[in-house]
Every structure is written in structure tokens, then in C-alpha cells.
Amino acid sequence: MTTVQRPSASRTLFSRDRFENRFFGIARWVVIGLLLIATIFPFYYMGLLSVRGLGDVLNNPGALWVAIGDLSFEAYSRALLPVVDGGEGFLGFMRNSAVLALGTVALTLAVSIPGSYAISRLRFFGRRQISALFLAVYLFPSILLAVPLFVFFTRVGLRGSLIAVLLVYVSQTVAVSIYMLRNYFETIPVSLEEAAALDGASRLGIMRRISLPLAMPAIVANGLFVFMVAWNEFLFALLFLVDDRDRWTVSLGLSQLTGNSIEVPTTVLMAASVITTIPIVIIFFASERLLTEGLTSGAEKG
Amino acid sequence: MTSTITPPDGTGTSPVPSGGPPTRTRRTKPGALRRAEARTGMGLIAPTVIIVIAVVVLPILWSISLAFQRVKLINLRSSSIFGNYVLDNFERVISSPGFVDTLVTTLVYSIFGTAASIAVGLIATLALRRKFRGRGFVRSVMLLPYVAPVVAVTFVWQTMLSPQFGFVNFWGQQLLGWSEPIAFLSDKSSDVSLFGLTIPIPTALITVIAFEAWRQFPFAFLFLTARLQAIPGSLEEAARVDGATLTQRFRYIVWPQLLPTIAVLSVLRFIWTFTSFDDIYLLTGGGAGTEVISVRVYQFLTGRGDIGLASAQALVIAIVLAILVGVYLKFFGKREEDYS
User: Fold this and answer.
1) Which chain B residue shows the shortest CA-CA distance from A9?
2) What kind of fold does domain B88-133+212-233+244-339 have according to CATH?
3) What pTM value is reported for the model?
């Protein structure tokens, strides 16, 4: 082995390499630090304001912490209590949101599990077209659907009913649900199902006893994802449910009360924001890995 | 069609290899069985298709028909599909005051919002590329802005940026020497003098774009991270041995691999930002020079109760969007193929 000596070239390269490694080695940590602050701080601020007194916030807007003695949870009780007890009724809003979100999860999964199974496993006329239709629905912006759905449900007298909103939510989530589940079904070897078929199991029997249990992690992740979408949804709740305070969801309630925030103190609204956000954060951290895998599987190909 | 699932950290359950193409080959399948399979398939997919057609496809078609009719919420009951079809609504949409401004605002908002969210997402992806203790946690935290309820985070931003008791304005005045609080969300434009030149800065528009970048960068981050993990390490290792520096390896190896993903992300994010309603409606209500088309549709619909006008405006969004995406695909669609 002979080595070719090219001292000048190799030295400049070496020094550039060393400089870049140094520079980006430091820049990397600076970026990570800034990103962490940018993503966490608003949530910290939300929690902070919710436990400070209103006067305290107005007098000292720059404070970044609260002394243990000044902690106050009054904002939470006011946000949660029903209106008749002098509160803002967020407990009721949470119930509405939970009913809607759980209903959406149940209905979406009920139609998307068989649907995605059919798309990934069975050959039938129009399979490809149906896949394309779902992709189009997934991409289709909801504001464009808002007008006709608003008009339709007004006309049939169902605007303001939770059923109407539920139906709209299902239509909004079913496409992405099918996409995620289909990707998962396709990672399950067909040979397992063929073995069961040889043993005389029917198609539905195979689905129930073999495919479903194997796909359970993906189904759970998908259900949680749908729950989060439905819980966070704002536009259709605003269009359909705004007239009747008893039917407000947490998102709608929060937006309506911040609209006239002269009446409701900021600290109470911050407590309401925390209440709105906490279920999502808990679900997200509990299922983060399942969720990110489900959403990005198949995306590696670009 | 087959795909593998790569766990984010390369740990956890090992990916299950796909068992070849999802459907069986034709020759092993007698006709009767195939027909049975097709029947089952259609039966299983039918509920989804019915819901999608009923709540998505039919409403879209109906909305197109409404756009050509004079319909208001008040006279809704007397109208029918066989009403008089006119082009009035489109004339009114285009001639209504602020139409061009709104379109320009929407374009600026979507282009810069898309670019900023993807740029931040890319920076985050690269910064978190190398393993370190707690990287998994940091990655999860990065996704928080994207998953948190939009109503809650817009309210926090409003409060943080409030001129009266907002955190940002307080410290801006204390530390950065701002002479007076900045009304980030209600100031249409403020003049900034720089080297004797006075430049109008659209404060509120910049703020909502910054919010868009903050809330949507995790989406780009998620997909770019997934793509980056699929790049075989041997390529970069070979380049490193050959003396390529960090930036060279990025420029010639990582970047070309990420480009197709960035292209797809650009289209998706552009479509969603162009039509996004929640963020701007909640942050500024469409005031201070931030009125985008979707907020306008909402106002035509609920404020004026003018269904025909709202439908026409929505249709205009769809057409503009289709043209823009079409042009994009025409110019960049070919080039993508070269890279992939």
C-alpha cells in the first residue's frame, strides 16, 4: 500500500472538516435548545397563567414563575362549574366533546376496519378508484365542504344536533383512518391468512380471528388519532353548534368565551385552555410511537 | 404498494416484512372464488363509500350547483336544484371590495407559511439526527404544537403577544428597548425606518405566518425524519471516508434524498394552508390585513347568510388551488422523478 502525499489539499480539507464538525456540533445544541423553548414555552405559559391570580398577572406580566404561596386554583373551579353556579360550564363542554370524540372513534373504526381490510386484501371492481377517492377526500379542504353541509343540515333541520356533527367528523376522519390501517394490514403476511383458509376458516372468520388481533396496535393508534382530531375540531363545531351553549364542545366554548374576554378573566380562560389541552397531551404521550409510525409508514419512499 | 414500518429510533419491534403483493395471483383462483372475494370486498368497503359519497361527494356537487343560484339562508326552503342558473355570484365575488387583496394575502400567507414550516421542520430534523440521551423525548415534544387543540394554542399566542399584559411586549420593552408595545395581531402595518428608508411591515400578517410555521413545522419534521431514517448510512460513511465534509455530505447525499419528500410536503402544506380557516379566524378574526379567502367564505355564509355567494367564493378557492397545484406539478413533477 502506497500513500500519495498531498499535504496542502488534505490539510485544508481536514481543517474545513474540523471547523464544520465544531461549528455544527455547537449549532446543533443551540438549535435544539431554541426549538425546545419555542415548543414548550407556550404550554408552560398556559399552565402558569392558569394558576396565577388575575391581579397578579396584570400587575406583573413578565413573571415567569409563581410563588407557592400565590398559587390559586380558583380559575379552574370557575371554568369547570356550570353557569348556574357562577362558572363557565366547561365540565359540560368536556362531556359534549368526549361524547362526540368517542362516537367518532367508534363509528370511524366500525367502517374503516372492514374497509381498509378489503382494500389491502381483496380484489374487487373499483378498488383502485376507491383508494383514489379516499386520497382526494383526505386532501380536500374542509372549508369547501362547510357551505354545502351547513346548508344541507340547516334545511333538514338537523343543524345543531350532535348527530350531524358526528356524521361530518366521521367523513373527515375515515379517509386517513383507512389509509393508516391499510398500510398496517399490508405488513401482515398473507400466508397466515392462507393457512387459516386451508383449515376451512371463512373470510370473515379469518378477519376476526387472525387479521384483527394482529392489527390491534394499529387499530388502537388509529382510534387515538381519530379521538384527537375530533376533540380538536373547530370549524364544524362553530358552524353547527354555536347557537346552543348546552351543546358547545371544549374548543367551541373556549373560542366563544375568548371572543368576549372582557367578561371572562384571562386566567379562567387559561385554565379552560389547560383543560382542553391536557387530554390531548396525555393521549399523545401515551401513544406517540404508535401514532408516528402509523402516520409515516410508507412515507419513507418519499 | 408494500411498505415497511420503521420505528423512529430503530429500536422496538422489528418491522414485519410484507408477504409479497397483497393480493394473490390470478391463476390460483377459480372464477367462483374470485367472484365471492369481490362480493365480500365490496360489502366490506360499502359503508365507507356510502358515508364518503353522502357527506363529501354529494355536498361538493351540490355546492357547485348552489354557486350558480341566487340563494340566501332566508329563502333556502323555496330553492331547489332546478332553480335558475346564473353567473351573478361569480361577478359579485370578483367585484366585491377586497377580493384581490384577500387573494394576495392568502397567497403570501400560504407561500411563506409553507416555506417557513418546512424550513423549520428540516432544521429540526437535521439537529435531532444524531442520537443522544433523551432524543426520543425531545422528538415527542417537537410534535406538541401540531397535536394540541388549535383554539387553546391560538389563545395562548394572543395572550403572550397582548399589548396590555403580554409576556412578549413586557420583555420587549424591558430588554430590547421597544419604545411602545407592539400590537402583533391588530397592527396592519407599521413603518420601520432602516438607513433612512421607511419600509412598511405587515405586522399582523408576519405574526400569523410565524404562528403557522410554529404550529405546522412538526408535520414536516415527522415526515422528513421518517425519510432520513430510511437513507442507508453506508452512502454517507463512504463519502466521509473520501473526505467529504459535513456540509458536502448534506448537499450531495442527504439533500437529494430528502428533495422528493420536501416536494410532496410543499404540495400538501400549500393546499392546507391556502384553505386553512381556524388559525387566522382565531388569531385575528381576519382583521388587520390578514383576511384570507376561507375567512371570507365563512363571513359570506354566516354573516350575510348569502349561500350563493359563499359557494361561489369557495369554488373560486378550489379553482385557484387546482390551477396553482397543476402548475406546480407541471414544472416540478418531472424534476422530482429524476431524483427519486
Assistant:
1) B243
2) MetI-like fold (1.10.3720)
3) 0.84
